[in-house]
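INTERNAL AUDIT FORM
Audit reference: QA-55
Scope: verify that the stored structure record matches its stored sequence.
Auditor: D.O.
Record contents follow.
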Amino acid sequence: MTNKPADIDEIIQSHSGGLQRNLSNRHIQLIAIGGAIGTGLFMGSGRTIHLAGPSVLLVYTIIGAVLYLVMRCMGELLLSNHKYGTFADFVTDLLGPTAGFVVGWTYWLCWIVTGTAEVIAIAGYFSFWWPHLPQWIPAILTVVLLFSLNAMTVKAFGETEFWFSMIKIVAIIALICCVAVMVIVGFTSPDGQRATLTNLWSHPGVSGSAIFPNGFTGFLGGFQLAIFSFVGIELVGTTAAETKDPEKSLPKAINSIPIRVLLFYVFALAAIMSVTPWDSLNPETSPFVGLFSLVGLVFAASLVNLVVMTSAASSCNSGVYSTSRMMYAMALRSDAPRVFRNLSRRSVPLNALIVTCLFLLTSIALMAVGGTVMEAFTLVTSVASVLFMFVWVMIVASYVEYRRRLPHLHRKSIFAMPGGLFSVVVISAFILGMVFVLALDKSTLYAMLASVVWIVVITAVSFLMRRTPRNAKIQAEFAARRRRELSLAKQQR
């Protein structure tokens, strides 16, 4: 359909291609919320609480605060130039075509791995009602449903995701309100557990501390799965090319992150541990479902199981959307095969969508060799967490280069990042800390090493692809433009 871009400016500007700007403000707000509330919270938080105890509240607060700064970096960059359709575009523009290639394919793999985790989780939720049902059946049904939803128009996707996310929001708020009533009336479960806020600090563990029951090591271990709860927080950064009014929608979505973290993570987990002490939770199951099962509300537990299954489908649905758009954008930049440039009559990158959904079926093989659902889930979430952290690092690195080369755009920014370069230092310290934490556990260490291998391999592939005369010309043009911009920045100072 579209001819190959002739130079680096056309590479970036070609992103939107034939995509339609049909996502409204309410779609963007709920997509942003839906991307941040996924399986990591609903399914993985039981294991996180088991490791960190009540200090898990501090874990989620720290991660949320740092990632808010990362999203502010992304927001300032996306709004600094209207030619950016996704964060991969400004990475290409600021760090070079090789960096854009690596980030684009890494982000694609991020969501393939994450989507696989979501499908595994959905299969686990099905076993709540049908424990003897082969898990490959709900896995296939889920992938077929996701393909059907994404094959429609982007507006239809936005509408579907709006209501999926609304279900999550209502469910979490209802859970918090329900627990508040339980605490007020002094509700006692059939096994003698009394709902009270004192459960948060009256159950010391092996360390003798109620807040850090498993010591500082347990607190650090909580980050390993908690970081996965936030993957997809940058999802709003892939919708810019299909957003009607990004100058209003993107800042509003990003600025709501602190409120979302406080309500959907901190308050929700505090509510769960108020009813069920941390040392009574089963780390192999969803604490959201377990809460109502423990107090004997069987029908409520089934309802919550349906809600968390819907949440996983919603998060996976957003990932499929994001991955297909990223692959389409890479094809327009000649970083992916030309076949992925094709759009359907409904302006959907259908070929990219088909390939994405086929890769999600690898969840069946993982469940077959991974033992329990939680073991398979832990394996893929560890890999996804490391890959997403790499993407966040590249977003921040792009911001640093933007401040160095284009200071005049930063001064004119309508959405400047708070703290500037000091915030970059905070983010960098956090990422280094996460690398240390992931290296503490053998399973996450292997996942980190596998992710490093991927980044090395995809970087090597990029260098091999860019040895052609055309790509050499693009690289030379990028280097020349970078020198001109740096020279201009020095003159302005």
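Auditor finding: record pair retrieved intact. The two ends are 44 Å apart (CA to CA).
Action required: none
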